[in-house]
Amino acid sequence: MSDTRDYDLIVIGAGSGGVRLARTSAALGARVAVVESRYLGGTCVNVGCVPKKLFVYGAHAGEDIEDAAGYGWQVPPDSVRFDWPTLVANKNTEIDRLNGIYGRLLESAGVTVISGTATVPDPHTVRVGDQSFSTERIVVATGSWPVIPDVPGKECILTSNEMFYLPQLPRHAVIWGGGYIAVEFAGILSGLGVETTLLYRGDRILRGFDEDLREFTQNELLKKGIDIRLGSTIVSVENAESHYQLELNDGTRMSTGLVMAATGRRALVDGLGLEELGVQLSGSGHVVVDDHFQTAVPSIFALGDVIGTPQLTPVALAQAMVLSRRLYGDGERSMDYRNIPTAVFCQPNLGTVGLTEQEAREAGYQLRIYRTDFRPMKHTLSGRDERSLMKLVVDDATDKVLGAHMVGPDAGEIIQGLAVAIQAGATKAQFDATLGIHPTSAEEFVTMREPVKS
Fold first, then answer.
1. How much is the pLDDT for 225?
2. Per annotation, catalytic residue among 60, 286, 405, 438
3. pTM surpassing 0.90?
4. What is the percent of the chain where pLDDT is above 90?
5. Please, are residues 174 and 246 in contact by the beta-carbon 8 Å criterion?
6. CATH 1.10.1040.10 is right for the domain spanning 154-263
7. If you write DSSP's letter for every residue of 119-132 in order, what string do you get?
8. Which residue ranges of the chain lie beneath pLDDT 50?
9. What is the topology classification, in CATH, of domain 342-446?
10. Which residues, in sequence order, are CB contacts of 201 under 8 Å at separation 6+?
11. 124 is catalytic
12. Residue 311, SS3?
């Protein structure tokens, strides 16, 4: 570490990865500053996973109220009323609380927080406004930003960022996209009483997930009343005062009160000046780094969404731990992108870890597939037409469980536990030898005995 510069490390971006990197590097003795132009906590805390999960809880509460009737709770329909501004205000209060926590974490770690927009005029300098700060190393952790396709009327289209601050809910909404953000917001709006249409150009939503889960989830969303239109995309949007008029690729027109695009995200590197210094960007616009997060400029590193790895908060956190230890610690850890557990907080939830059946077959494994779907016990009395799916992908040669997949209530919570077993290399025999907790949905993962196919 050099004492001739202002800092040993300047991190650009105070999202999950940037904050973790700054704190751990400071704990290892580095002099660290973080530059942030918007809000502490980044996308996840402010306009991503945290407020989205709160909205999912809010949307699902309506179903819980309806389901209570099957258990003897008399809820007069006229007494049930949802107030959107209350949910938004309470969400804002929680985000403000988390912003404060992030600030205090950085302060207590001895990290300097610099507010403003950063540029990088040379490999050892970060400029913020009219101030310049010298540093031995720079880490770009600026994340990603939603992209709206370039269609006529695109200025009428919202992204997930704006959805968290809507002044009121429309009667009808169109969600454009088929990935996890689109599917989650379709479920949120529909659950809050908005007539919702999901437009997706592909032939099935949630590309990249296991095919059985894609089909099952799509059918469950249809049962929830979401209008899913496959092979569809927006050609143009027209503001017609009280509504928006959409033209679709098949020539049909439809009107709606809100249009949201969840059609992709791009790396947020605009204006940093990285390319002028020799930092390479990929064809998709992500910062190119090596296995140690180093760019083509030796003093500049990058991590998180900006480098194009899976856009998940735990991935950025793990990368930050690896990089901080490499720069200022023992440097022995490396990133392992296998068996990353993830969830889609649609209704019901989707959770997954390990290989999909398709990925395993393409990798050359001979497989045994175990699968079950059933009506959750809760709905035997609620009467709700909702089912759960569970699936195990097993290597027939070694009996190792390669993947575990689920659609159903609390799928993310259940898959998180199974992720430990998958990471540890558990076999199907070990799953079979594990006693279930009865009666739970999760016990199905240790009671599936006969493969449905091989």
1. 97
2. 438
3. yes
4. 96
5. yes
6. no
7. EEEETTEEEETTEE
8. none
9. Enolase-like; domain 1 (3.30.390)
10. 178, 231, 232, 233, 249
11. no
12. coil
